[in-house]
Amino acid sequence: MAKLLSYEEKGTWMEQLCGVTKMIFFLAWTITCMLTYDTRVLATMLVISLILFKLSKTSWKQIGSVFKVIMVFMLINVLAIFIFAPYQGAKIYGTEHILYDFGGRWVITQEQLFYELNVVIKYFTIVPSVFMFIITTNPSELAASLNQLGISYNIGYAISLALRYIPDVQDDYHKIKNAQEARGIEMSGKAKLMDRIKSVTAIIFPLVFTSMDRIDTVSNAMELRGYGKHKKRTWYMGRKLAVADYVVMAVTVIFMIVALAITYHDGSRFYNPFI
What we know:
Blueprint (H helix, E strand, L loop, with lengths): L12 H4 L2 H17 L3 H17 L4 H25 L3 H6 L4 E6 L2 E4 H26 L3 H10 L4 H30 L10 H7 L1 H24 L18 H21 L12
Antiparallel strand pairs: 1-2
């Protein structure tokens, strides 16, 4: 059974890439998406992101719950932009084409809708890359790759523990949930929404204490094995950069440079279709 946001070996070409390569791609992709508001660039990145996501063979069970939560936050973000800055689009693009006037300070303009469209595209561009990075990257291999680049193994190991901790927390969650349901606490979709919200505390507090116990156990185990005694260490999952890694990194850097050049060629990072 596929676990939520956890590495699962599927034999895809992305898994064969070095963890550092995928991290460089992820960081460059995210930075480019954050800096640009050029709809042409964002649309291109969206198409590429969806294609790569399809090639990663990520299943809905691995991302479904998190994706739904992200979509809720996206809707809240878009709505908040309209409520608190209804003229943001008009200020950015320098024109104002009113579609509907609610009265007072709230109006719907073409410029505002276009601006918020770019915000939505940003979400759908970055989110798949996050999922791909987490699901196709072996945590131990990533830590080893980072250390090979000269990054402290403490940082690499911290990232590795964070990624490996996700499935462990999921297992604890399901165990606690099943135990509480066995005690008669209804937590399934059959219960009322308010009852389910109240029942969450029956999971959250045991999960927090279980996580703290796990952290203490891991910390003691690392200390007993002499972690941190030496400045360098060996890695079982170490992987050297291959030709494919250099090709992917080169293409990523070139794409980032071209995308930002297109974005800022006229001195503004916003593409303006209204002039």
